[in-house]
Amino acid sequence: xxxxxxxxKRYGDFAAVDDLSFTVNxxxxxxxxxxxxxxxxxxxxxxxxxxxxxxxxxxxxxxNMFEEPEKAKQCIGYLPEIPPVYPDMRVRxxxxxxxxxxxxxxxxxxxxxxxxxxxxxxxxMQRKLIKHLSKGYRQRVGxxxxxxxxxxxxxxxxxxxxxxxxxxSWMREFIRSLAKEHTVILSSHIxxxxxxxxxxxxxxxxxxxxxxxxxxxxxxxxxxTDGIYVAAKTTREELAKILSGVDGINNIREERAxxxxxxxxxxxxxxxxxxxxxxxxxxxxxxxTLLEMRSETKTLEEVFIALTxxxxxxx
Amino acid sequence: MxxxxxxxxxxxxxSIFGYMFLAFLLALIGFxxxxxxxxxxxxxxxxxxxxxxxxxxxxxxMLTMRTLSEEKKxxxxxxVFTAPVSITRIILGKYLALASILLIAMAVISIYPPxxxxxxxxxxxxxxxNIVAFFLLGCAYFAIGMFLSSLTExxxxxxxxxxxxxxxxxxxxxxxxxxxxxxxxxxLVIWVLIxxxxxxxxFMMKSVIVATAVFAVCGAANAIAYFAVDKALFDGLLTKMLxxxxxxxxxxxxxxxxxxxxxYVYYLSISSLFVFLTIQAIKKRRWS
Lengths: 315, 288
Hints:
The complex is a heterodimer. By secondary structure, chain A is of the alpha/beta class.
């Protein structure tokens, strides 16, 4: 369990992290989202004890990071944005060093290194120098390192950046499998990834918490009412006229015509109203062919842009 | 601590630097032993060691430049400083690894005096107290080098800074006899030093207020000591101050066969001071 309480990090007058509080429960995967520069890495660096906080507390498995750092750090495996590997070491040698550093008892060290190499699938690379490994394999060695000593909490800072699609899908599956035994925080600026992997999402911007909830709930509560996309074989004017006869419409947004002689728009009904049937009947009574009608659910992407401001999300 | 220690030793000898350091140091000592002890037939083992001390200028940065700067540059410090080991232990592990590498060279040269004694009377007490002093001098320079490496991300900058600082400690002894040392000059030089201190404080804390406060407090203390207390305090102060930082002048005594335990204490203090400063520099980095 991870508890973050009123965490603040200031650099001079600039607050990189501003009064951030949240809790991650046992066995949960928390997705940590925000545009670049939102304070994700800074927060993670504070949770892992790499940098200190200006104010606030981080409590890992009951140990306060700033009061009992060694006990708290023992519970955390951390993969920073750039895998912390020594290029001039061999994979096995490196993992042995980390196991030793993380106080894995000497007798269990070999078995433990074998275990994490197997999990991260780097066992066939164990004799290679890390500088000769590809980005994907370095990332895996970084993952293996974070698992050493089987820590309760695993923190991954943008684990899929720079990986190819195959490796990304492996990494996602792998992170999911971690949740059985570990509490995971995973940062990303790729929304799809968070949606696919995480139990809950925390969105921050400019160091402040914007929302924390399940991905579905985030989309639902902030996304507003779902729209209905309508395309019919008619002119824009005709389309607007037909729709104006339907009750329960909040507003209508024109969409780009999908093909010649077809008009389209998005219809936003009033809160809670299901007007699909009425729309169908209205077109049918006007004898206009309705080519397409589908509900549009907002993606996390749109929610994210809406929440963090357009220019921030451009990255 | 042991994990970091072992890693540092192994890294020194998987890269070229560990071998270069040992080869260079042993070759130099060997050369001077051959020149002075064998060829010119001086029985004193202190002379060759004394001649080698100047090469610490190149030898020390070779080993210390990467100790902390490289960790920071490659972001491996994120691993080391999030491990369940205290910063003090990590720094001590690194420092002891450096000292151990020098110790290897000392072990090798420890067999020279008995070999030399086959050809004449060698004063073993002078020889071994010199080897110990040489080792401790090296350790003091390592501590300084490690501290300077903790201040920067660049190996090159760390190496150059270490070179300059060691050069100053080597020249201090020569310099102190050649500078004017009346109280006016001392008073002014102290002002310059206070200004330098304030500038360093500014760059470390990024705060004009703190830097100004440091400058004001130290400046006031300086002025009070000069005008209100006693001007005689400042007579020869510069010479004394250069004496404080002259690591090498402590080594000279051993040459004449004097066993100077104060020098041992001095070297150990310098080592402890800079190891402590390194720990503080790393701790401070976490705060800014």
